[in-house]
């Protein structure tokens, strides 16, 4: 069994990236419906075979809005930094990770990344 197997959805909207549904080992950890103004939905899949091995990350476009052209989606995507960071909260949290730390989701659904003991990054 792997040490980590995390799948995170991200929805691109004209307001920016919104964190979506997440699963760990196929079990839903958090369910978030696709926003009505989403233009794309992507997944980031992270796996780690042991706590001593690197985390492997892949991203995949899984849905596009039929109401937006490729050019419109490209223009919206170019306005916002990608949310993919190669980090997944998991059972080995803090043991061997040197990643950016856990994510805090604020009431406005904007993900904020911070390291243990550090104040939230308010970008």
Descriptive overview:
- The chain is built from one helix and seven strands; from the N terminus they run βββββαββ.
- The chain has one domain.
- The radius of gyration is 15 Å and the shape is elongated.
- The model is unreliable at 92-123 (pLDDT under 50).
- The chain has one helix at 70-78; strands spanning 4-13, 16-24, 27-30, 40-48, 56-64, 103-105, 111-113.
- Strands 3-2-1-4-5 form a five-stranded antiparallel β-sheet. A two-stranded antiparallel sheet has the order 6-7.
- With 123 residues, it is mainly beta.
- The protein is 7% helix and 38% strand.
Keywords:
disordered C terminus; five-stranded antiparallel sheet; 7% helix; mainly beta
Topology:
Blueprint: E1 4-13, E2 16-24, E3 27-30, E4 40-48, E5 56-64, H1 70-78, E6 103-105, E7 111-113
Antiparallel strand pairs: 1-2, 1-4, 2-3, 4-5, 6-7
Q: Name the poorly predicted regions.
A: 92-123
Q: How many discrete structural domains? A: 1
Structural class: mainly beta
Major β-sheet annotation: 5 strands, antiparallel
The beta-strand count equals 7
What is the CA-atom radius of gyration, in angstroms?
A: 15 Å
Alpha-carbon distance between the two ends: 37 Å
H/E series: EEEEEHEE
Q: Whole-number average pLDDT?
A: 77
| Lateral strand order in the biggest sheet | 3-2-1-4-5
What portion of residues is helical? Answer: under 10%
Helices, by number, come to 1
Gross morphology is elongated
Name the beta content range.
35-45%
Quaternary assembly = single chain
């Amino acid at each position: 069994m792997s040490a980590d197997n995390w799948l995170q959805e991200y929805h691109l909207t004209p307001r920016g990236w919104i964190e979506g549904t997440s699963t760990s080992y196929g079990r839903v950890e958090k369910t978030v419906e696709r926003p009505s103004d989403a233009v794309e939905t992507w997944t980031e899949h992270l796996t780690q075979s042991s706590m001593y091995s690197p985390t492997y990350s892949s991203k995949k476009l899984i849905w596009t809005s039929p109401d937006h052209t490729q050019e419109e989606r490209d223009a919206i995507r170019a306005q916002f930094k990608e949310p993919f960071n190669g980090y997944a909260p998991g059972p080995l949290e803090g043991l061997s990770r040197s990643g950016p730390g856990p994510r805090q989701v604020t009431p406005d659904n904007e993900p904020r990344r911070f390291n243990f003991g550090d104040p939230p990054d308010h970008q």
